[in-house]
What does this fold into?
Amino acid sequence: MSDDETLIDTQKMHLRILLPTEVLVDEDVVKVIAEAHNGAFCLLPRHVDFVAALVPGILCFYDEDGEESYAAVDEGALVKCGRDVFVSTLNGVRHNDLQQLHTLVEEHFLELDEHERKTRTALARLEAGALRGFRELQEKFRG
It folds into this structure.
């Protein structure tokens, strides 16, 4: 590796935002801005290794050309180790435009709310069925 390549390598980080089912972001960046429980922070390539518990919010990152991108993330963890920055979160969506990201987040959470409602309905049915089964067994042994 030449001196120029080493210099360029120390001026960028590799960001990976990982969801349970997919890799949301996997690219080189020069700056990451995120928010933890104790406030917002900015990571640059030569920043000391770092770990933070993220709060739900917008994670901003910049590519080598200065192009800003955004990812809406749920609670999660961020780890910076060397030039690698890993973010692990349960939910996330990405877009380069904040207004479009807002729309995507609304759609995503409406979808999650509908899924959660269906899950709660199915769980209530299972619980009711189990209670009926116990009641029938109780009557069978009493009778």
About this structure: The first strand starts at residue 13 and ends at 18. The chain has a mean pLDDT of 85.
